[in-house]
Design goal:
The structure is a single chain. The protein is mostly helical. 62% of the residues lie in helices and 0% in strands. α1 crosses α2 and α2 packs across α5. 18% of the residues are buried.
Length: 124
């Protein structure tokens, strides 16, 4: 929800389980006012989450590449860019978040100005 106060519902018995969730959701709260496309916001949020709470990465091993190839149909790619794939049960173990993370990572590595320009010119 991008309106009102930030509310985060999370479960976990330890701080280590809650830290990544809180970092992720608080990053959303800071970016929400920019009105970015969902895929771009999710990619940025995952990068911020991993900067605050280092842990597992979305390593591009051969098994993950095979999962992506099987998962991303033209319809799902359309739902990725509209943001609908992030809201449904069709998550496939975080593949939409992994793709968003990879795309933003490529933008960050390519040229420093490209990501800034995209952020300035993008809108939901």
């Amino acid at each position: 929800m991008h309106q009102g106060s930030v509310h985060v519902a999370a479960h976990g018995a330890t701080a280590a389980k809650l830290e990544p969730v809180l970092a992720h959701e608080l990053a959303h709260s800071r970016l929400a006012s920019l009105g970015l496309p969902e895929w771009l916001e999710e990619g940025l949020v995952v990068h911020l989450e991993k900067a605050v709470v280092p842990g597992e990465t979305f390593a591009a091993d051969l098994q993950l590449v095979a999962l992506h190839r099987e998962f991303w149909t033209p319809g799902r790619l359309e739902r990725f860019f509209t943001g609908d794939v992030f809201c449904g049960a069709d998550d496939a173990e975080g593949l939409p978040y992994a793709l968003a993370y990879q795309l933003v990572g490529e933008l960050m590595r390519d040229e420093a100005g490209k990501l800034a320009t995209l952020l300035e010119q993008s809108s939901w």
